[in-house]
Amino acid sequence: MKDLIWDKTLSVDVPEIDADHRRLLELFNRLGHAVEDGEPQARIEATLDELISCTDWHFQHEERLMEQHCYPDLPAHRAEHAELIESGRALLQGLRQSGASLSSQQIESLEHWLTGHIYGTDMAMGRYLAEAM
């Protein structure tokens, strides 16, 4: 598994959001290494749960900033957040029910889940907030 490395291309130019994103990348990398190293299922599930919980907190943080600065695309951004969190929770629930570990396809999906959101809607939000703040 390749680590996700923070670089300027992931920056949304809002330091507090960038700090959150760095933390999410660290958790994603920890999860990938846990799977790759064959760590116990309970540890993998706990790490995925932590990634989902931190992502949920981060999304609430972003939404507070968007509300505070009257971001016009807040409803659509909030809906994307809800969809992402729900898909993460469904993945975790499926793992807990099946006892299976994360597959390489699921890890790849999580990577796209994380980076796709940052490169997509977060960049537009970041441009708006960087000017508004």
Automatic annotation (TrEMBL):
Tell me where in this chain the Hemerythrin-like domain is found: 15-125
Q: What is this protein called?
A: Hemerythrin-like domain-containing protein
Question: What SUPFAM superfamilies does the entry give?
Answer: Hemerythrin-like (SSF47188)
Q: Which GO terms describe its molecular function?
A: metal ion binding; oxygen carrier activity
Record's keyword annotation contains Protein transport: no
Q: Which family does it belong to?
A: Belongs to the hemerythrin family.
Write the lineage as a comma-separated list. Answer: Bacteria, Pseudomonadati, Pseudomonadota, Gammaproteobacteria, Chromatiales
Keyword Iron recorded: yes
Q: Write the record's keywords in alphabetical order, separated by commas.
A: Iron, Metal-binding, Oxygen transport, Transport
